[in-house]
Amino acid sequence: MSRLRLCLLFLLLSGVIPLQAQQWRSPADSIRALPFEGYDPMTTHWQWDRAAIVGGVLGATVAGIHVYQQNAWWKDQRTSFHITDDPDYALNVDKAGHVYGGALGSFIGQKSLEWAGAGRTTAVWGGFAMGALFELYVEFEDGFARDWGFSPGDAYADVIGAAWPVVQHYVPFVQHFQPKFSYFPSDDMLDGKHKGNAIDDYEGQTYWMGVHVHGLLPRSWQSYWPEWLGIAIGVSVRNMPRVAGDDPARMERNVILALDYDMTKILPGDSWLLRALKEGLNFIHFPSPAIRISPNYVAYGLYF
Predict the structure, then answer these.
(1) What does the domain layout of the chain look like in residue ranges?
(2) Quick one: which of 283, 197, 160, 185 has its CA closest to 236?
(3) 3, 37, 77, 288: most buried by Cβ count inside 10 Å?
(4) Is 146 helix (H, G, I), strand (E, B) or coil?
(5) What is the b/e burial string over 203-217, where b = at least 16 CB atoms within 10 angstroms of the residue's CB?
(6) How far apart are CA 6 and CA 9, in angstroms?
(7) Angle between the 4-14 and 48-69 helix axes, to the nearest 10 degrees?
(8) Tell me: the pLDDT tens digits for 16-45?
(9) Which residues contact 109 (CB under 8 A, 6 or more apart)?
(10) What pLDDT is stored for residue 88 in this prediction?
């Protein structure tokens, strides 16, 4: 199942809780980008009013998403817990969605905890726990749904995604690689043939790994490559079976190579809040020129 619900979580939180930028990049960044005056990244000193806001908003958001899922996915589905191994479902593009959802949830948790006063290491691991536990909670609920079931592959992908910000914290090189997501309604969705919603409209979803090229180049080459311009490799699926009798062999896994943007280098403003919001926007792949490199070549003026 896709993790677009975490995009909703991000949008809700971004309007209520200021998010914390990745401050470990340089001493200058740490000076400019602190969640509040007196914040010490090496220690935890809870701001209890902020912690209450974080807990309340996160709790309300999770509850709201649960109610939505209960009505959209699990209604009239309750049965005994069961495991469904689905290694071929959606040609594993859904697993990329689970990695993305785990990473986004971990990012939100980490920044929320920092804003509430947690030291960076505590926030990083706390964010991992929040992202992984939320995704695994959804997966366990799927295990009680007749048409779904608990998927071990999905669970592994959830944890891997939630661990991504942790790896970025300890291995600065990995900060040059950013999970991203884009969506444009599929033809079936636009024509009204798709009976679900955007969450399971897999043919409209593309999951990306963005690469911040400038930081990977030798110093002598960096002046030739714009700091804000990157590349992204995306995967999507086409021709998924919709009704009984559709041939699953018709499914295609598309591999897309596109230009990408580092929003932290494009949008103005150097305050803590603006820098944090720009980092949040980097979880989205914005339309750009692209080519499909598999299963065959197609050029796109703009790929959404």
Answers:
(1) 4-303
(2) 185
(3) 3
(4) coil
(5) bbbbbbbbbbbbeee
(6) 5
(7) 150
(8) 333 333 333 433 343 357 888 888 989 999
(9) 58, 123, 126, 127, 128, 129, 130, 131
(10) 80
Beta strands in 35-101 (DSSP E): none
Q: For residue 109, which phi and psi values (nearest 5 degrees)? A: -60, -45
Residue spans of the chain under pLDDT 70:
1-32, 243-245
Structural tokens at position 156: 């592994």
Pull the structure tokens for residue 157.
Answer: 């992908």
Integer distance in angstroms from the first to the last C-alpha of the chain? 21
**Residues near 286 by beta carbon (within 8 Å), at least 6 away in sequence:** 182, 261
- Determine the Cα–Cα distance for residues 226 and 58; give it in Å rounded to an integer: 37
Provide CB contacts within 8 A for 212, sequence distance 6+: 175, 176, 177, 178, 230, 262
Question: How many C-alpha atoms does 129 have within 13 Å on its Cβ side?
Answer: 8
**120-143 vs 93-115: helix axis angle to the nearest 10?**
140
pLDDT at res. 146: 87
Q: Which two tokens stand for residue 138?
A: 């959804």
Name which of 160, 161, 139, 159 is nearest 150 in CA terms: 139
pLDDT of residue 244: 64
Residues in the chain: 304
